[in-house]
Automatic annotation (TrEMBL), chain A:
<protein>
    <submittedName>
        <fullName>MoxR family ATPase</fullName>
    </submittedName>
</protein>
<feature type="domain" description="AAA+ ATPase">
    <location>
        <begin position="35"/>
        <end position="213"/>
    </location>
</feature>
<dbReference type="InterPro" id="IPR003593">
    <property type="entry name" value="AAA+_ATPase"/>
</dbReference>
<dbReference type="GO" id="GO:0005524">
    <property type="term" value="F:ATP binding"/>
</dbReference>
<dbReference type="InterPro" id="IPR050764">
    <property type="entry name" value="CbbQ/NirQ/NorQ/GpvN"/>
</dbReference>
<dbReference type="InterPro" id="IPR027417">
    <property type="entry name" value="P-loop_NTPase"/>
</dbReference>
<dbReference type="GO" id="GO:0016887">
    <property type="term" value="F:ATP hydrolysis activity"/>
</dbReference>
<dbReference type="Pfam" id="PF07728">
    <property type="entry name" value="AAA_5"/>
</dbReference>
<dbReference type="InterPro" id="IPR011704">
    <property type="entry name" value="ATPase_dyneun-rel_AAA"/>
</dbReference>
From TrEMBL, chain B:
<dbReference type="InterPro" id="IPR008912">
    <property type="entry name" value="Uncharacterised_CoxE"/>
</dbReference>
<dbReference type="InterPro" id="IPR011195">
    <property type="entry name" value="UCP010256"/>
</dbReference>
<protein>
    <submittedName>
        <fullName>VWA domain-containing protein</fullName>
    </submittedName>
</protein>
<dbReference type="InterPro" id="IPR002035">
    <property type="entry name" value="VWF_A"/>
</dbReference>
<dbReference type="Pfam" id="PF05762">
    <property type="entry name" value="VWA_CoxE"/>
</dbReference>
<dbReference type="InterPro" id="IPR036465">
    <property type="entry name" value="vWFA_dom_sf"/>
</dbReference>
<feature type="domain" description="VWFA">
    <location>
        <begin position="226"/>
        <end position="395"/>
    </location>
</feature>
Length: 302, 417
């Protein structure tokens, strides 16, 4: 599929994949697609940073290549690795056959047959369906050397393999970089990307998201759930619930056959929205009932 | 020093002397202006001529400055030495040892003070002597000074009782001090002769050079990495003298490349929390501290440790401690907030830190007991509790910082609770 030709088209395309996307996010996604620049998304956990890459890949009908970052990620796990056992077998076979041509053997051993492609290299390869979507997830978990290594890949869309030379992408992949901000990512990398801070959605958008993701939830329950979560986010919590938690919670409530919220139901299912003991302890007792009342009050005029 | 030649300088001998003097002033302020450079500078000035002040400035600049952080110092010294003799008098006044607590409020530009000190060093000053420090409660240290050498004495002396000269000396001693830290294993591997994992990539490449023969197995082992340091420094009124010196110390630590510590994050707090990490990265210490001071609006105000720790836990903890940081908490623990909240925030801080070390200048008092509510609330949640009121105690801190079993005075004080 061709890339959308307007911001509205982007929103529409993502919406068709069940990703409800605000105007601001739609704009940066559109810019990223038209300008061919990587998109750097930061935000709290569970606001839909990773989801957008999946929705984009599905919407554009492109391949999704995911590079999950972790501390100690290095070039051999991110770009390429040689298939050493196969190379060893090939060497031994050549020896057993006798009189192997050394140059030919070397060419063969360090050729495409023995190359294991990792996500970054895969993303540089041409694809019938068009350049793939490359998701570099949770970049803040890597160490700084890897971040520096990415600079070449993200600005020139090429990687270098000593034995094969430089491999450049015929068409730049659509790159989405996400970060939870457990540390600051270097300016040099941010400068090569379009930046967007993904925030918690407002009431209407969260309703739309919940409707798209958990359509089986009754409207009345959804409204209470979203209102309660929105109210919860205004509290001083160590970790505020993300959109993913809202969806999880709605599904939990459905599984329990709850038709509306009550302090008891909330107390039983708090683990689905709050993930820190401190936060859960805060909501014990009358606190949950108070929040529920406030949430219902905010729904009144509607 | 008596003559301050205007810019239409006379011919050679005087010029040579002047440039030499100028270079000496630069050297005192910390610029590497050696004799070779003086010769270069004289030649350069002769070659360039005196067509304008600007040319003259940049000619000397080209000869004496080779690092960006020296530019400010050079500019100040140039201004003092070549341009405005009367300015020196002004600086003399600025150098009057300030009576403690009545700091002069004229905003000194970065490097200005250092420039003036470099120029005026050794000049007979017609000034009253430094007032005797407040000796209440410090008899032991004053007595001990009779038997110690000057540096030893300074080591043990409380920052609060130091004169401006002594503070300067102490700052120099602290700038040399490092916080050596043990590296921790990372998940990244590096080639090694004695590793225990096989590096197939290098092994195969090596065997290719041998025509496919496997001679050596290349090995790799985890590459060590250095932990981050997060410093939370109390700048409230009761801590002001200590926090100034300790910020000086932190500046030295954060700029000591290759001495351990992958990153140093620094925060100040009093009534609110301020991140001064970026300011500490400025190479000139005066400029860095001036910028940090301008950013933190709450110098010498009250203390709300609980609220500030709460702000840190909420906004910064995950960002700066994600990779396991050692936390230095520098405060006297005198806090009037709710002790329950303080205790809760300390626990949270402790849970997210690799190690939490509390540096408390109050520990200097003989028989210090954690009677204040704030201290009692914080103490159970630290890994180590150490004094930090003198060069010697900070040296001890440096020696102990990478020991994971060191608890400092924590056990003794917990017993008195």
């Amino acid at each position: 599929m061709q890339i959308p030709n307007s911001i509205d088209a982007v929103q529409e395309m993502l919406g068709a994949q069940g990703y409800v996307c605000g105007r601001a996010l739609g704009t940066v996604v559109y810019l990223s697609l038209t300008l061919g620049r990587p998109l750097f998304l930061e935000g709290e956990a569970g606001v839909g940073k990773t989801e957008i890459a999946k929705a984009l890949a599905a919407g554009l009908n492109r391949r999704l290549i995911r590079l999950q970052c972790y501390e100690g990620l290095d070039a051999s796990s991110a770009v390429y690795e040689w298939n050493f056992p196969a190379q060893m077998v090939a060497i031994r076979t050549a020896e057993a056959g006798g009189g192997a041509d050394r140059d030919a053997l070397q060419r063969e051993l360090f050729g495409p047959d023995y190359l294991i492609e990792r996500p970054l290299l895969q993303a540089m390869r041409p694809d019938d369906r068009g350049a793939p979507v490359l998701l570099i997830d949770e970049l803040d978990r890597t160490d700084e050397p890897f971040e520096a290594f990415l600079l070449e890949a993200l600005s020139d869309f090429q990687v270098t393999i000593p034995e094969l030379g430089t491999i450049a992408a015929p068409e730049p992949p659509v790159v989405i970089v996400t970060s939870n901000r457990t540390r600051e990512v270097h300016d040099a990398l941010k400068r090569r990307c379009l930046y967007h801070w993904v925030d918690y959605p407002d009431f209407d958008r969260e309703m739309a998201i919940l409707h798209a993701r958990a359509p089986e939830a009754a409207a009345a329950l959804s409204r209470e759930v979203v209102a309660f979560v929105q109210q919860l986010r205004t509290e001083d919590l160590f970790k505020k619930p993300g959109v993913a938690e809202t969806i999880d919670w709605a599904k939990c409530l459905l599984a329990l056959d709850a038709i509306d919220l009550s302090p008891e139901v909330i107390a039983d299912t708090l683990g689905a929205i709050l993930k820190y003991q401190d936060d859960i302890a805060r909501l014990q007792g009358s606190e949950a009932a108070r929040l529920l009342d406030q949430a219902r009050a905010s729904l009144e005029p509607a | 020093m008596a003559e301050y030649a205007p810019l239409d300088l006379p011919a050679d001998p005087k010029l040579t002397a002047n440039i030499t003097h100028f270079a000496r002033a630069l050297r005192k302020a910390g610029l590497p202006a050696g004799p070779g450079r003086v010769v270069d500078a004289i030649r350069a000035v002769q070659a360039a001529g005196f067509t304008g002040k600007r040319d003259f400035y940049w000619t000397l600049h080209a000869c004496f400055v080779n690092r960006p952080e020296h530019r400010a110092v050079f500019a100040q010294i140039f201004r003092l030495y070549w341009r405005d003799p009367r300015f020196l008098e002004h600086m003399m006044a600025a150098l009057l040892p300030a009576v403690r607590g009545v700091q002069e409020d004229r905003a000194a530009k970065p490097a200005e003070k250092r420039a003036a000190e470099a120029l005026l060093d050794g000049v007979e000053r017609d000034l009253p002597d430094q007032p005797e420090p407040d000796t209440e409660g410090t008899g032991i240290e004053i007595d001990a000074s009779l038997t110690m050498s000057a540096e030893e004495r300074l080591r043990a002396l409380d920052f609060e009782q130091m004169s401006t000269d002594e503070i300067a000396q102490a700052k120099r001693m602290l700038a040399r001090l490092q916080l050596p830290v043990k590296p921790i294993p990372s998940r990244r591997a590096a080639p090694s002769l004695t590793g225990h994992r096989i590096d197939w990539r290098r092994t195969l490449r090596g065997s290719m050079r041998q025509g496919g023969e496997l001679h050596d197995i290349a090995l790799r082992r985890p590459r060590p990495r250095w932990p981050n340091l997060v410093a939370l420094c109390d700048i409230s009124g009761s801590m002001s003298q200590y926090s100034r010196v300790i910020l000086h110390f932190l500046h030295a630590v954060s700029n000591a490349r290759g001495a351990g510590w992958a990153r140093v994050h620094a925060f100040t707090f009093g009534t609110r929390l301020t991140n001064i990490t970026r300011h500490l990265a400025q190479r000139d210490v005066d400029a860095a501290l001036a910028a940090a001071g301008a950013e933190a609006q709450d110098w010498e105000g009250g203390t709300r440790i609980g609220a500030c720790l709460h702000a840190f836990n909420r906004d910064w903890s995950r960002r700066v401690m994600g990779q396991g940081a050692v936390v230095l908490l520098i405060t006297d623990g005198l806090d009037r907030d709710d002790p329950d909240m303080l205790s809760r925030e300390m626990e949270r801080l402790h849970l997210s830190a690799r190690r939490l070390i509390w540096v408390n200048p109050l520990l200097r008092w003989e028989g210090f007991a954690p009677r204040a509510r704030g201290i009692a609330a914080m103490l159970p949640h630290v890994d180590s509790f150490r004094a930090g009121h003198s060069v010697a105690t900070l040296e001890d801190l440096a020696a102990m910082i990478s020991r994971t079993d060191d608890a400092g005075e924590k056990a003794r004080l917990l017993a008195t609770l």
